[in-house]
Amino acid sequence: MPRSVHQSSFTVHPSPTFALLFALFVWHVGLPSDALASPAKAPPNIVIIFADDVGYGDVGCYGATHVETPNIDRLARQGRLFTDAHSASAVCTPSRYALLTGRYPIRRHNLTNAIFIKSPLIVDTDRTTIADVAKHAGYATACIGKWHLGWGNKTPTDWNAPLQPGPRELGFDTYFGVPVVNSHPPFVLIDNDRVVGWNPDDPFVYGKKAETRTFDEKFHLNAIGGAQKAHAAYDDEKIGTILANKATEWISEQSMKKSPFFLYLATTNIHHPFTPAKRFQGTSSAGPYGDFIHELDWIVGQVMTSLKENGVANNTFVIFTSDNGGMLNRGGQEAYRRGHRLNADLFGFKFDAWEGGHRVPFIARWPGHIEPDSKSNALISNVDLLATVAAVTGQKLGEDDGPDSVILLPVLEGDPTTKVRDELLIAPAEPTHLSLRQGDWMYIGAQGGGGFRAKRVGEHSLGGPAATTFTGQVNSDIADGRIKPDAPAEQLYNLAKDPRQSTNVIRDNPDVAKRMASRLDQILHDPRNDR
């Protein structure tokens, strides 16, 4: 059963006093006094759409020209678009951990990489999550889509038994979606804590090969075999439609109940393999990669339409962002050849400490609170969403709840130039490349990007210095796809002067690098980190 009382220290204010809380909040942030005279509105619904592998240049409002994203672009026109937003990690699992817990993923036993089929749940059930925060404020809570944070409390997970603990033990009333990632087994759907279509007469068996998948990129397919009915319920080209339908149905159900709701919709779009529904195939000029973006945009449109049709769009706080930057896999390479720039002009790709690995689209819409058609260059991160949801729902977090999360309301509701954070830790795939942003400075503690490093064009994991021979990107430490012999051991970039990270200026600014390296070491040895 999901927990009804969480063992955390954050304060939950009684829902009948929402008007008083609103007044106190107004007083605290210094809004005009006449705001107090207005009757308090009902608590806003909250929807977070967490896309997968969507890069900074993958949507129209961020400059894409080879794909069409009218629904995401409309969201930007109705809200605020951020140009300096980052995932706390350049990798999917740790990025999701940051969003749910408000903690840098390195605090969780130096988490920097993805987990797969045999991983237990990596979020401590006693830790406050973003779903706990909403639930304790009286919200109905749901997670729909990609989970990718592990299941159960042992290794390997028994896929023939209830998958507990899982999302419902972390504050979500309901869960439906893809348990790991759409490129890896077990290729099933999960409804709360059971595999959809599971048959006790045909159990999952480790060591046997699962049935053949429909996509082209076949790797890591030595999965748990058996359970043909469960595998048959998972159709690659229908996953986007299934998740969109589940999300809109849930929104409709909660709207009828007239109570606030919190939805975390984590899409499988646009993680490889690129398998949109047939009606989207061939619709972009960026190949299957772009077609998958078109389906993602449709999903966003379905959610927004559902909010409008249920009469709750004007009182719903919507955030659209991505778990990390775009990936230069085979589909990404094809899109690149066709002229589509996954991460716009940013250097690097998914998994990298370079900007392309973690600077992501971030759009926030909240009518009456967020100025429409506005932009902000404030430094923010997905790790900030827990504290922001707490503030929106009138709650105070405990000392150990979301220690790395900051409240975004001042820059969402107020001046777009408002500074809300001084620094941000970034975790690429390689822990050796943990990086720190302070102001305009970006410090990377090693050579290269710290991500994929395959050297041949056409390889799934093309990345790092070798990728520059394909993309034509320039970096002062790299020549002919290799790190120069005399390149510095670490990297420092001034992003205000050099947003493309073309020049490593660490030799000209040794004191800045030393200060940032010391601060990075301090975070890594923080006593609040899990040991």
From TrEMBL:
<keyword id="KW-0479">Metal-binding</keyword>
<protein>
    <submittedName>
        <fullName>Arylsulfatase</fullName>
        <ecNumber>3.1.6.1</ecNumber>
    </submittedName>
</protein>
<dbReference type="Pfam" id="PF00884">
    <property type="entry name" value="Sulfatase"/>
</dbReference>
<keyword id="KW-0378">Hydrolase</keyword>
<dbReference type="InterPro" id="IPR017850">
    <property type="entry name" value="Alkaline_phosphatase_core_sf"/>
</dbReference>
<keyword id="KW-0106">Calcium</keyword>
<dbReference type="GO" id="GO:0046872">
    <property type="term" value="F:metal ion binding"/>
</dbReference>
<dbReference type="InterPro" id="IPR050738">
    <property type="entry name" value="Sulfatase"/>
</dbReference>
<feature type="domain" description="Sulfatase N-terminal">
    <location>
        <begin position="44"/>
        <end position="394"/>
    </location>
</feature>
<dbReference type="InterPro" id="IPR000917">
    <property type="entry name" value="Sulfatase_N"/>
</dbReference>
<dbReference type="InterPro" id="IPR024607">
    <property type="entry name" value="Sulfatase_CS"/>
</dbReference>
<comment type="similarity">
    <text>Belongs to the sulfatase family.</text>
</comment>
<dbReference type="GO" id="GO:0004065">
    <property type="term" value="F:arylsulfatase activity"/>
</dbReference>
